[in-house]
Design a protein that fits this description.
It is built from 13 helices and 20 strands. By secondary structure, it is of the alpha+beta class. Among the domains are: 4-35 and 386-588, Multidrug efflux transporter AcrB transmembrane fold, CATH 1.20.1640.10; 175-315, Jelly Rolls (Sandwich). The strands form 6 sheets. The protein has a 4-stranded antiparallel sheet with strand order 2-17-1-20. It has a 4-stranded antiparallel sheet with strand order 4-5-3-16, covered by helices on one side. A hairpin with a 2-residue loop joins strand 14 (315-317) and strand 15 (320-322). Helix 11 runs antiparallel to helix 12 (528-561).
Amino acid sequence: MFHLTRYRYVFFAISGAVIVPGLLALLAFGLNLGIDFTGGTTVDLRFQQPSANVKVDDLTTVFQKAGATDVATFASTDLGATGTGSITGSQFLYITFSRPIGTNLEAEVVKRLGDAKLKLPKATKVDTEYSAPIGGKQQLGLIVFKFDTALKPADLKTIQTALKNLPDTDLPPSVTGNGTTTAPAAPSATTGPSAATVTLGPTSFNGSTSVTITAGQSVTFDNSRGGTHNLVTGTGGTFSQAAGAPGQLGATGLPLTPGDVTPVTFPSAGTYHITCTFHPSMQLTVTVKAAPKATAAAGSAATPAATATPSASSTSSGSGTTFPVSVKTTELGANNQTYEVNTQTDLVETPEATGNKASLTTILATLQQKYGAVYVEQKSTVGAAVAGETATKAIGAVALAAAAILIYIAIAFRHVGSFKLSFRFGASAIIALLHDAIVVLGLWAIFGKVFNFKVDTLFLTAVLTVIGFSVHDTIVVFDRIRENLGRRTSEPFVQVVDTSLIQTLSRSLNTSMTVLFVLSAEALFGGASIREFVLALLIGIASGTFSSIFNASMILAVWQTGEYRDWFGGRRRRAFRQPAKAERSTQAAGLRV
């Protein structure tokens, strides 16, 4: 019989050659943690342009230039609901407007396209990009619809006809904060115009508004729960007060303490854009006050204070300010891919961003200029606190799994002769699975440094899967050892281990090789978004197959025979000892879990 245990130190040396470089890389570089453990933002984008025109590297560059760090971009083809076919690009309709739009126009467009008389496929509005002005430049409004079936050129003409003669639009929500603007009150004959008030929050964590200022007017920020605010110069005038002094605003904004009231007087006229970063449930009121005027004649019409973002072409009514708008383009989608962008920077939906933040609004404007219609399918943000909690739970999950496996194996193998031996079975399995986890983690530390591989929750899933697979394979070998201990009571323990390994070797290799073949195909031909996950599984399961056969059983044999004492200069014992008489009698009685 071929004695595998004779080569136990060769197998240990092979494991050491793989583990030691990984451990050194872990100590030197650490793991390249993804946004699940560090915090950041994931954005899914869809473009109207064909996929051949949209380059993944270009998207990465746009995000990086906007201040986003550690950017990774993936493109994936969308499958249908049944998974049997892909969603075609022409199921998407991109409607762009001549100016930023409000919610009333959005509702009107949805109503018109849902008219049964048009005989169009069922449509679902998937996104509206209100596109507030950025950097003094007027951006376009955009509504995207997804239809149940692909649209035809004739359908597009029907839609264009239905969208003629649209009503005036109200202000975009990003301008009005919570979607409403308080109309100015009637002017006073003695005190001049009363204040125009714009309330931001508490329905959003970030908001902005624009106000037109005349010389001598002031803005008061009244915040009840804390946050930050920032003033950005718009189309006219300048504002150059230094940041940091009480009651003053600068380029980076100032924090507001609860109940703080910060007045700022503007030295010149102009349109100013105000951005606010909210704390949860924050309520921030921005009040524009005009300088008192001399007594006016009774009944005279004094000019009211400015409301949010007025325009020369706007009309004012009792319901608020409205603007003429028209459809600029109606285009069918030519791209059925979703572009996932991951960054460890917090992407905020305001034109200005400070600290570890970047403006998603500015990024979308840049992409719009480069590629045309683009919208955000999905955006998810992981905060630093949540990321830290995820990391803690990940470590706890691995530790809990190892403890549960140890207890289970110790109980399941309780009839092998003694509790000490059953514990050794469990501990040997744990050492083998830790070997597999360290192999994957160590290689990922190297790959993270060389190839920028990330450690995220998907990677954690791969590690836990590897642990489960490794223990499963180890238990198959250990169970055969347990059976043979009852049948071969006169044979040395090491010989029983050798026999059991030979008997289970073909099964273990066949089972593992079929899995490895499938994973290899996935790694070579699968999508980029799952390639790192598949590679972690491939490496881990290959390591698990090796450790189950050539490590776990060898560790058990060295431990049971006491040969490990030779490593520390202890009393030498025979590696191929006969079982003790009491042990043989227990084994002969029959071993059953």
